[in-house]
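A quick aside before the break. I want you to see a complete sequence-to-structure record at least once, exactly as it would be stored in a machine-readable document. Don't worry about memorizing anything.
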Amino acid sequence: MAPVGTAVQDHVALAEIELCGELIIAASAARERLSLESIDEVLRVAEERRTGSAG
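That is the input. The structure line, written in tokens, reads:
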């Protein structure tokens, strides 16, 4: 058990959780299934490719 007051943050995991949450919100608001393009937009795939941040 970790000592009280000690917090370990996994920034990659937190980012993935945030993206999953955004995807769930988009899917619940959609009237139909999300297209692959819509999913990519929610996950900011094109933005990552443009900036070269992926990887």
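Two observations worth writing down. DSSP finds three helices and no strands in the chain. The chain has a mean pLDDT of 83. We'll return to this after the break.
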